[in-house]
Amino acid sequence: MKLLNTYLLIAFLPIFCFGQQPPDYDSNLTVIRDTAIYYAQINNSSTNQLVEIIDIVPSIKLDIRYATTNNFTGEIVYSSPKAFVRKPVAEALAIVQKALNKHGLGLVVFDAYRPYSATVKFYEIYKDTTFVASPWQGSRHNRGAAVDVSLINLETGEELQMPTPFDDFTEVAHPEYKNLPENVLKNREILINVMQNHGFRVYPYEWWHFDFVGWEAYDLMDIPFEKL
Fold first, then answer.
1. Distance (Å, rounded) from C-alpha 9 to C-alpha 15?
2. What CATH number is attached to the domain comprising 62?
3. What pLDDT, on a 0 to 100 scale, did the predictor assign at position 27?
4. pTM above the 0.90 mark?
């Protein structure tokens, strides 16, 4: 009997081990992990370069939540509080910032380029692809072509009141949600209008998430900040 049990364990061990393997999320995706490939893309076109937003828009405020524990994971995900985007995205943000500054307002950035491995981590924590990108498709953030932003008052440095905090996974975060105070509706409208007037489109379920028009031109990336 003991010998039989041993045979059964050996027979089923591959099944048990296979079940413990992480899912092969990116088997049908092209994800750039090799810095040599990334730099070759830059040599081909400077528009592929991931640049720090503050190098192009020095006055922008950063509040990179995933470099802290103040995010829905409760963990530090990024190695440093930096915000990278493709060069044309940063240039568009500079135009947005200039337009807002005329009205005493500015942008605060919560997130920008996000390595693909972080998208996998987010999905494994919260498997609702309404609010968390599917790892089988990847995120616009992984392409360096999306930003999570809100507005600040330049005089006080304080954020304007918005429908929800960043990374709120409820219907109140939807850009079309109406049951809100007038000042909140106005603040959201200002943000969405200025972003959409300068090359971005708001995500239908998150008032803070904006995709750059033309995001499809950029590959998914899984290169850490320190290698950019």
1. 10
2. 3.30.1380.10
3. 85
4. no
